[in-house]
Amino acid sequence: MKRFIFSILVLFTGMNVAVAAGDIEAGKGKVAVCAGCHGANGISASDTYPNLAGQHADYIVKQLKAFKNGTDRSNALMSPMAAGLSEQDMMDIGAYYNSLPRTPVESAAGGDATASSAPAAKYEPDPVAGKSLYELGDASRGIGACIGCHGKDGNSDVLIYPNLAKQHPEYIQKQLHNFKAMENRANYAMNKFAGQMTDEEILDIGAYLADTQALANVKPKKVIAVAITAEVLAGEKKAATCVACHGQGGNKPIADYPRLAGQSSEYLVKQLTEFKSGVRANAVMAGMAAALSEQDMTELAAYFAAQKPLAGNGKGSEVGSKIYYGGKVNHVNQAITACVACHGATGKGMAKAGFPSLANQSAEYITSQLKQFKSGARANDKASMMRNIAMKLSDNDIDELAQFVATLK
Q1: Phi, psi of 199, deg, nearest 5
Q2: Mean pLDDT on 207-219
Q3: CA 336 to chain centre
Q4: Residue 335: which H helix or E strand, with range?
Q5: Is pTM, for the whole model, over 0.85?
Q6: Residue 63 neighbours by CB under 8 Å, 6+ apart
Q7: d(C-alpha 235, C-alpha 258), whole Å
Q8: Rg of the chain (C-alpha set)
Q9: Residues forming a β-bridge with 328
Q10: For residue 335, what are the β-bridge partners?
Q11: Predicted confidence (pLDDT) per residue in 342-398, tens digit
């Protein structure tokens, strides 16, 4: 706690606490062993190890001391490496790495997947979301803005805090997971902040820090996270049966089933109610919903709404995009309403108005539902809106629209 309070004082007084005054040339002669993991130029060829080129000398010294003393950091490889280093050795090594130029990194293909506890699901990291969390934090979850300590674009002005820009995203993710799990990394603030981050947010931050200059002109947006309420926790326990078709957390493994993650709770409750009553006909879901109480439905919906969806599988379509945003007039001069009017520019829908999110769904599921609305096999749409639209779509229109909608996220 004292270390944390001291760090905060350093931050708010604008002081740089310089502790390393090493010799660059001497350090160059001492890093031969380091090059095996961190690269001869301080840029690691493996995403398992951090880039050290251009890193603050003070931070390098601080970490080497922690490895040597076994305080704050534990690492079976680094601890014995640091054990034989004198304080002067550490300062020289820090000075040498600090003198090297930083260069952008690319994720190493086929990196060591076991080195990080990042989720195995193929979530597409969002660097813009990463920038938003990095610069703004999320006060509602007690996540401080990273920019306060690590500086604008990942370039820290405080020497005891590391530069994060141009770092391997896999390494950033690995360390955040270590802080989150409180394994091998002990820091009051970082344990607290990382402990509140989702696995997807950790991936997002790693993607952003890999090349912060690529988003230099992008304005961050406030992070809005669904609160983890008692209903969400209760729903998680009741969702075990749903996993077989809809996947863990509502991210389905089978394209023909809908993705429930991130769908509005209002819409999910409506569908479960109508499966139970028979208004929406489905032999499997009717049986699943039959025993659910209103409270069960509310809790299940809250749980799935709080999950972060994986990306859809659409290939994109110019024809589909035009229909989605502008509608069309079909071959018999019937006007087809633009989807954007109800489902929004990014496909997130309008929960309070009863319009579902289409973003992140699969092309196969979108296709099947449009065809069911067109044939009348599905008839639980408000005021027959979807049936009236779908009946005017050709099979090709549906295919193209599905390929586009499945790219929205």
Answers
A1: -60, -35
A2: 91
A3: 36
A4: strand 335-336
A5: no
A6: 73
A7: 18
A8: 26
A9: 336
A10: 329
A11: 999 899 999 888 899 999 999 999 999 999 999 999 999 999 999 999 999 999 999
